[in-house]
Write a structure and sequence with these properties.
By secondary structure, this protein is mainly β. It contains two helices and nine strands; from the N terminus they run E-E-E-E-H-H-E-E-E-E-E. The longest helix has 10 residues. It is globular.
Length: 154
């Protein structure tokens, strides 16, 4: 069953991607991350997005507005997603950490200060200023493309 993941991404955009739901057992939460949006938690290695990126605390209103704005969900669906799915079910806020490493994308979600859980895993590719996320298995036809811009010191 296709599950739509809606999260405010730290790359100053909104990440809407399909997920098969089962995380890889090899995944481990990032050890360090910055506390502000669009700040790298680790050095870029192969592409400009490689490393870990962590959001600030994102409220339900922020997540709902982002999901509705990009057309990923209705207002009702986005509220339900926040309270029932995001980070295992959030009440006050969620912190999203995105990891890009060796073509593997992992989205970590921490609801209300809890231990982060894997919310999504896909492969990624960077082509110029376009980031492409691609599902796997039954979700292999799910491809999301984002223009991105990394700001700040290199």
């Amino acid at each position: 069953m296709r599950r739509c993941i809606v999260a405010c991404a730290v790359l100053a955009s909104v990440c809407v991607a399909c997920s098969s739901g089962e995380p890889s057992p090899k995944a481990s939460p990032p050890e360090k991350a910055a506390s502000s949006i669009a700040s790298p938690a680790s050095e870029a290695v192969g592409t400009p997005v490689d490393g870990s990126w962590r959001s600030e605390k994102l409220s339900e209103e922020t997540i709902v507005a982002a999901a509705v704005t990009v057309g990923g969900a209705s207002d009702k669906q986005a509220h339900a997603f926040f309270s029932q799915n995001l980070g295992g079910g959030a009440e006050r806020f969620v912190v999203i950490t995105l990891q890009f490493q060796d073509g593997q994308f992992t989205q970590w979600e921490a609801a209300d200060g809890a231990t982060p859980i894997v919310g999504n895993q896909e492969t990624y590719e960077v082509r110029g200023d376009v980031l492409e996320l691609r599902g796997s298995g039954e979700e292999a036809d799910c491809v999301a493309r984002f223009d991105y811009k990394v700001q700040g010191p290199a």
